[in-house]
Design a protein that fits this description.
heterodimer, A: 594 residues, alpha/beta, Glucose Oxidase, domain 1, Enzyme I, Chain A, domain 2, eight-stranded parallel beta barrel, B: 89 residues, alpha+beta, Histidine-containing Protein, Chain: A, 4 strands
């Protein structure tokens, strides 16, 4: 391990997105994924047996890893996601792979690591050269296994498994990685890539491991052994913090633990303002296995069930109607008597597109409802499955990426046709499922009056709404600073939406990341949002703010926010407000004197 | 040695889950098991082999069993193919 070049007086701050709240302080562990080329080493003939044993031991350890991964994945993400790892387990003892490695060691008199690398690379190349996109993707499974075996071969040498009590810094992590790490007691993790809804983020939240993603090159700022403060609340990582910063974070860490205990007591209390206005608090979910988290955190229903994860994680674009109906039914039953809001498959943008389709400008391209209307083979099974599942409890149907009213009208025709088909087939379904649209394209907010007459509810998606109205890709470091979800232009669009909803008497919820920004909560309620939906772990903090404010105060704050021309000034104003009302995280973490 | 031609009927083809099912089923029998597709032959007890077939819906495969329990193995394998690996369509 090399020493840092300078004894850094100034610490480095890497900004990312906080995806699992909490504060971790500890040494960094730089987790290099794969591609450490194993050197070829000739061995003495009498060493061959020893080398074969080393290979067998490494395979055994990899098997143990995978058994653990399978058990946790099944519990947290369900049977479907565990299948990939079960296949990996079989690959370890594959009758074409295993003996081939052994005979490679024997015939060439070389080290096990090099033999594993050579044999598995050969198989991988066959897959990578395939015409089948699916198979090309699966070659990653082989790479995962190769990596795992080689890692175990090196155990006790250069790179062991992750050290305990470290903060893992990696380019990218899989859900499997984080499961194994959490078993070894890691403190937190930070990745260069990923988003709040990627697999690793969901798993980090489920396991309670503080995490940030999308640090844009965080791995380049850290060396193994550097002291790191990971702030999963603000989405920051501070490398080699100065004494003062470190001391303040140690205090924050203790206070955060206390805060979590206090928040637990809020779970059963109503989400209601001081002047008696109830606010809906719902969960954003992607997997059935997250439903216990929803209950633990006091959510009343699912405001946004994203269906992409469930449909795409199996590595195939088309999951059958039967499979979907079975899965949706289980979700609905588990959430009942509360309502589950299903958003139809929202592909495109930063998410995977079917059929390997690529675009120059995906956020302005083929995505959401635009794909669904063009691809009945995607829409039909899902729509039929959701309708059929609706007999199990209350649901709502949410359309992604709507731009103009014609899309809603065309969808309604299609919905009626699908209902007619189901009736003819003798299939039961709920006849009165509310239909809503995502308000994420500015045109919908601007024409909210028109939409409000034709749909049953609005759900505002602030992430896309912000990036469309401010014309900024927040993943682009050059312009990410312009991205401001509290920008008055964004808030005006929200207000147009809530006003139209109120006039038409339909509910309006907000399911973007903005709901988890405590500074925004009073403003949003003041703007007339009646329900906030967020990843369950954030709900207790949101409820804390709701219970500390009057709706009338929120209205005043909303006016101020709409008139603000200085985002920095408004943010610090809100921070003070939260502190005065004893409900901001900073109040608890930094104390009343800031 | 016995042979039998089968068709992949499930919509998604031989992706990870069906491939594991094939290997797991084959491994319950002593007989050797090979799959031929388009003049290409793989060991049917190898998941890497089965996956590299990249067999899609409608693909025709030739199953070959050789060993003391080849008849039983064939019956079991035909059953999971006929059932579309529990996925149908």
């Amino acid at each position: 391990m090399t020493e840092p070049e300078t004894t850094s007086e100034e610490h480095t701050i890497c900004k990312g997105i906080g995806v699992s709240p909490g504060i971790a302080i500890g040494p960094a562990y730089l987790y290099a994924k794969v591609s450490f080329d194993v050197e070829r080493r000739d061995i003495d003939p009498e060493q061959v047996e020893h080398e074969k044993e080393r290979f067998e031991k490494a395979v055994k350890r990899a098997e143990r890893d995978l058994h653990k991964i399978i058990a946790v994945t099944r519990e947290k993400l369900g049977e479907g996601s565990a299948e990939i790892f079960e296949a990996q387990l079989m690959i370890l003892r594959d009758p074409t792979m295993y003996p081939e490695v052994v005979s490679y060691i024997e015939n060439h008199g070389i080290n096990a690591g090099y033999a594993v690398q050579t044999v598995m690379s050969k198989h991988r190349q066959v897959m990578e050269a395939s015409d089948s996109e699916y198979l090309r993707e699966r070659s990653n499974d082989l790479l995962d296994i190769q990596d795992r075996i080689i890692r175990h071969l090196r155990r006790g040498r250069i790179l062991s498994a992750v050290d305990e009590e470290t903060i893992v810094i990696a380019e990218n992590l899989t859900a499997a990685d984080i499961i194994l790490f959490s078993r070894r007691g890691i403190l937190g993790c930070a990745t260069d890539f990923g988003g709040p809804t990627s697999h690793v983020s969901i798993m980090a939240r489920a396991l309670g491991v503080p995490a940030i993603v999308s640090t844009h090159g965080g791995t380049g700022q850290v060396k193994s052994g550097d002291l790191v403060v990971l702030d999963g609340i603000r989405g920051e990582m501070i490398v080699n913090p100065d004494d003062e910063t470190l001391a303040s974070y140690r205090v924050k860490q203790k206070r955060y633990a206390r805060l979590q205990l206090q928040d637990k007591q809020l779970v059963d209390l109503p989400a209601e303002t001081l002047d008696g206005h109830p606010v809906g608090l719902q969960a954003n979910l992607e997997l059935r296995e997250e439903i216990p988290l929803m209950e633990e955190n006091g959510a009343k229903g699912v405001g946004l069930f994203r269906t992409e994860m469930m449909l795409l994680m199996e590595g195939r674009a088309l999951v059958t109607e039967e499979e979907q109906a079975a899965e949706y039914s289980k979700v609905i039953e588990a959430v009942a008597p509360h309502t589950t809001t299903f958003r139809l498959l929202d592909l495109g943008g930063d998410k995977l597109l079917p059929m390997g389709h690529r675009e120059h400008n995906p956020f302005l391209g083929w995505r959401g409802i635009r794909i669904l209307m063009d691809k009945p083979e995607l829409l039909q099974p899902q729509l039929r499955a959701i309708l059929r599942a609706s007999v199990h409890g209350p649901i709502r149907l949410l359309l992604p990426m709507i731009t103009e009213i014609g899309e809603v009208r065309r969808f309604k025709e299609l919905l009626e046709q699908t209902k007619t088909d189901l009736r003819e087939e003798g299939m039961a379904f709920d006849e009165d499922i509310p239909l809503g649209v995502m308000v994420e394209v500015p045109s919908v907010a601007l024409q909210a009056d028109l939409f409000a007459k034709e749909v049953d509810f609005f759900s505002i998606g602030t992430n896309d709404l912000t990036q469309y109205v401010l014309a900024v890709d927040r993943g682009n470091d050059m312009v990410a600073e312009i991205y401001d979800e509290l920008h008055p232009a964004v808030l005006q669009l929200i207000q147009l939406t809530t006003n139209a909803a109120k006039a038409a008497g339909i509910p309006v919820s907000l399911c973007g990341e903005l709901a988890t920004n405590l500074r925004a909560v009073p403003v949003l309620l003041g703007l007339g949002i009646d329900t906030l939906s967020a990843s369950p772990v954030y709900l207790p903090a949101i409820k804390r703010v709701i219970r500390a404010m009057k709706l009338s105060e929120g209205e005043g704050l909303a006016r101020r926010a709409l008139a603000s021309s200085d985002p920095e000034e408004f943010r610090s104003f809100m921070d003070r407000w939260l502190e005065e009302h004893a409900c901001g995280v900073s109040f608890f973490l930094e104390g009343p004197d800031g | 040695m016995i042979e039998k031609e089968v068709t992949v009927t499930n919509r998604a083809g031989l992706h990870t889950r069906p491939a594991s099912m094939i290997v797991r089923t084959a491994s319950q029998f002593q007989s050797e098991f090979f799959i031929q597709k388009d003049g290409y032959e793989i060991n049917g007890k190898s998941i890497i082999g089965v996956m590299t077939l990249a067999a899609e819906q409608g693909a025709t495969l030739n199953l070959i069993f050789d060993g003391p329990d080849e008849q039983e193995a064939l019956v079991a394998m035909e059953a999971i193919f006929a059932d579309g690996f529990g996925e149908v369509k």
